What does this fold into?
Amino acid sequence: MGNASAIVFSGIAPHPPIMVPEVGREAIAEVRGSIAAMAELTSRIIHSGAETVVIISPHAPLSADAFVSYHSQPLHGDFATFRAEATTVEFPLDDELLGAIVKSAAAQNYEVPALEEAELDHGTGVPLYFLDRNGWQGRVVALGYSFLGNEDHLKFGECIREAAENIGRPVAFIASGDLSHRLKPEAPAGYNPSAHLLMNKLSLRWRETHQVRSLLSILICAARPASVAIAQYSSRLASRKLCRQLARCCIMKPHLAWAIWWPN
It folds into this structure.
């Protein structure tokens, strides 16, 4: 690949199960913008030529001081928890890249313990569902974040980038994460009529500050996955340029619709 980076795409994807038609049923009309955004995100991944997708989820089993990895072959998940047990996602695990990530992380004193034969969580499953249904084919590495700080997640992201460079195959990175979790009366955290303003604040913060790390204070459950995603690019692109790209690419119509990506 010469001097080109192995990380050919990086982005942030939503993961509400209601987006999955077999789960949301008639309610998917409320999230059609997010469904369309995931179709566009998948199209960009396909166009990038990525052979492997690395995804990190805030809903994987948490470890206080380690970054867990799903370690079954193939990776498999379903939506039985959401009354759609027949709806599944399945991708082959990229054992080689996962091994390289474990090695690179160990050099920085981070552990990546294996979740043997565990079913994928919905934070992993929802984005992978849309990648599959929209035509991407390839291997996957599925990770979880930890209780370590944002800076540790940035450093772990650098380990992922280093591992991808060592393997030398084109890799896409997806940080799975949602925002306020309080947009509807039946939301688990309860309804807040101002919750939709978080979307506007996200875009405005980028335009006003042009600071990569300013995203992390307002991304809620996406913050630590986003830290890992930002590390794929922040050392190679000026933060001002990256933030302008993010502000342009944030999909916000209607309030529930969003996905963020930035190009190589």
Notes: The two ends are 14 Å apart (CA to CA). The chain is about 35% helix and 15% strand. Confidence is low (pLDDT under 50) at residues 216-224, 235-264.
